[in-house]
Amino acid sequence: MAKDFRELVVWEQAMALAERVYELTKELPGDERYGLVAQMRRAAVSVPSCIAEGNARASIPDYLRFVSMASGSLAELRTQTMLVARMSLASPRSTDSCLDQIARVDQLLKRLQSALRKTSQERAAPHSSRFPFPVSRP
């Protein structure tokens, strides 16, 4: 497991997504500055932030909770990007590119969750050599 969040591909890709969202939201009309622009940017920044905060936590359950929050923010961002596309508020090229990056980050988050769950289960599993002698009599 990575000791520093900056070593994680998912964090790097989430940072790239946040940059892409900032570029996309520059295309939105000015009257959306406090609406979709603010919401999309907040959700986009939340994804790598939650990954970093979870990585800094002392336990795997805490880490999983923050990865789950990152997934929630990503779903929120996907919905907002789809709305922008449906309303033709930005170019299809920009929204498609953003949605593609969202899909990449989503897959990486799922892999991180799976790895964390596996590690958590391995740590919680009782060792077969727990008792060096038979527990029951023959």
TrEMBL record:
InterPro entries registered for this protein in UniProt: 23S_rRNA-intervening_sequence, 23S_rRNA_IVS_sf
Species of the source: Noviluteimonas lactosilytica
Protein name in the entry: Four helix bundle protein
Region (Disordered): 117-138
One Pfam family this sequence matches: 23S_rRNA_IVP
